[in-house]
Amino acid sequence: MTFSLPDDLAPELYPLAWLVGTWRGYGVLTYGETIPEQAVYQEIVFEHDGGPYLRQITTVWTLDTTRSQDLDFEVPGLEGATRIAPAQIWSTETAYWRPVGQEAPDADTRTPITRLEVVSADPAGQVGVWEGWIQGPRAQIGTQAVGRTRTSAPLTEMTRVLGLVGGDLMWAQDMAAFGQDLQSYASGRLGRVEDPEDPAAQPGALLSDAPGLPEPAGAPAQGADDAGAAQ
Q1: 228 has pLDDT over 50
Q2: CATH code at 11-194
Q3: What percent of the chain has a predicted confidence (pLDDT) above 70?
Q4: N or C: which end of the chain has fewer CB within 10 A?
Q5: Where is the chain membrane-spanning (predicted)?
Q6: What are the boundaries of each domain within the chain?
Q7: Cβ contacts of 57 within 8 Å, gap of 6 or more
Q8: Is the pLDDT of residue 219 over 80?
Q9: Cα(134)–Cα(51) distance, rounded to whole angstroms?
């Protein structure tokens, strides 16, 4: 799929332009003994309104395992998305990415490094303040502070890595929660969707009884609160 620079994109966002769009795919959630390993369906939307920032909306669904096919990470993101059936929303998150300056390129890649500040919020009661960088088709951010409501899960730290590999968006997150050290929580492989309304790009499209995305049924799944709704 050919990628073109989005219209009206602020010049400050040119280093982040490859993120813009709708991405769909699959991934894995796991967190020690708290969350048993499970496959999930994922959608990430990076959008802009002409301002010097990107808005990221992330949604993760559990799977209907009776209908979904088994996948491995060699399957392209979009193809994988069409072979699994989402069941219930596990977590959602809204974040804003803002470039805050550049550093000199390193001698090996000669690609400038753009510094990032990110803020995120989720319905499980966590707010994250992140810092990091983006260089070419790779970004890495980590929380400098995590605020949470009185009843939310005890989440203290998160890190995230995103990269463009073979045209797919690959990402992974570690987190520290429930008194445990920083460890793996989630990962995914997603493909860019040219037309989000195209029936062929809907989750489960290659399954014989594909219904598309289920309607949100109120709050995220209970497990999302237990995990701090981190993505």
Answers
A1: no
A2: 2.40.128.20
A3: 87
A4: N
A5: none
A6: 11-194
A7: 44, 45, 47, 92, 93, 94
A8: no
A9: 18
The Cα–Cα gap between 125 and 133 comes to: 26
Q: Tens of pLDDT along 35-56?
A: 899 999 999 999 999 999 999 9
Bridge partners of 28, per DSSP, are 39, 187
For residues 64-93, average pLDDT: 95
How far, in Å, CA of 100 to CA of 52, rounded? 10
Tokens of 231: 């993505």
**Structural tokens at position 113:** 């490094």
Residue-averaged pLDDT of the chain: 89
Tell me the two tokens of residue 3.
């990628």
Q: Which residues, at least 6 apart from 222, have a Cβ–Cβ distance to it below 8 Å?
A: none
Kindly give, in sequence order, each residue whose CB lies less than 8 Å from that of residue 100, ignoring residues fewer than 6 positions away. 115, 116, 117
Question: Which are the contacts of 188, defined by CB distance < 8 A and separation ≥ 6?
Answer: 25, 26, 27, 28, 40, 42, 77, 169, 170, 171, 172
